[in-house]
Design brief:
Elements lengths: L1 H15 L4 H20 L3 E9 L12 E8 L2 H4 L8 E4 L3 E10 L2 H14 L3 E2 L1 E3 L14 H10 L5 E2 L10 E8 L4 H8 L7 E4 L3 E5 L10 H4 E5 L3 H22 E3 L6 E2 L2 E2 L8
Parallel strand pairs: 1-3, 4-8, 8-9
Antiparallel strand pairs: 1-2, 2-4, 5-7, 6-12, 9-10, 10-11, 13-14
């Protein structure tokens, strides 16, 4: 992992010598995107694009393009690829979203958190499929809860922070350069609303677990910090955990892709061909 860290830092340094800000950002994003893609494929993959839902939530926003989207590598997530290469990625397929910053400072982190909170407004088109019954003639596990969920919540879409699905998608920020003090970054993370994972190769990694119950836990009980020499490994491990959480949620709350019949009022050609 040390060699991978050095390789990514070299890519960031090379990006800094380019003149145009867009080029610098693209080069840095490309380096971490390809590193992640090698780790998560083939079950999942990594794209850059806009995340959408089946309900046209906040469709008037000018742009929801994300630097890095880690999503299922299946027909549902790949069916809305445009000729330009831009992908429109159904939120149900998304395990993690990573904003990339050449320099991670407080402003960059809070800007990423604001964008993440907007994306978290999207609604999942899912239905709860209860676990099989135990024993012959038994009632499926969670049958009553699933029936209520499918009746009360599923038709309107389910927000990402809904208690049943709140761990389905992880929001992260990845920086190459940043504050010299890990405590400083941890203090910034106390104020984020949606971003739960921040990693910086020069600083370290901070992960904030979601609250485990109704009682508000102290920050120290919900956060884990890793020094700079462990930052990339910690980030990789936590992305793996995000994929595991998404896989588990997807097996229980199953995407109803048939609801993607149109986008902003425009019919989708193959919308009737998916189950």
């Amino acid at each position: 992992m040390d060699l991978e860290t050095k390789s990514l830092l070299v890519a960031a340094e090379r990006a800094r010598v380019l003149d145009h800000n867009g080029n610098r950002g693209f080069d840095a994003e490309h380096a971490i995107r390809e590193w992640l893609r090698r780790r998560v494929e083939p079950e999942y993959t990594v794209s850059s694009g806009e995340i959408i839902d089946a309900f046209d939530t906040d469709a008037d926003l000018k742009s929801r393009q994300q630097d890095i989207v880690i999503h299922l590598n299946n027909r549902e997530s790949n069916r809305l690829a445009l000729p330009s290469g831009l992908r429109l990625i159904p939120i149900e397929t998304v395990a993690a979203i990573v904003e990339v910053k050449l320099t991670l400072d407080k402003t960059a982190l809070f800007d990423s958190d604001k964008a993440a909170t907007q994306t978290a407004n999207l609604r999942l088109s899912v239905e709860w499929e209860p676990a099989p019954a135990r024993g012959a003639g038994g009632v499926p596990q969670d049958a009553a809860a699933a029936e209520e969920f499918n009746r009360e919540k599923a038709p309107q879409g389910v927000k990402l922070w809904d208690r049943e699905v709140r761990n389905r998608t992880t929001f992260a920020v990845f920086g190459f350069n940043g504050p010299s003090n890990l405590h400083t970054m941890a203090e910034w993370m106390k104020e984020t609303a949606t971003v739960s994972l921040a990693a910086c190769l020069e600083t370290g990694c901070v992960f904030r677990r979601p609250p485990s119950g109704a009682i508000r836990e102290p920050w120290e009980n919900r956060s884990i910090v890793y020094p700079s020499d462990e930052a990339l490994m910690a980030f990789a491990t936590l992305i793996d955990a995000a994929i595991d959480k998404h896989r588990e949620s997807s097996s229980k709350f199953v995407c109803q892709i048939r609801r993607y019949t149109q986008l902003n009022g425009v019919p989708l050609e193959d919308s009737s061909s998916s189950g």
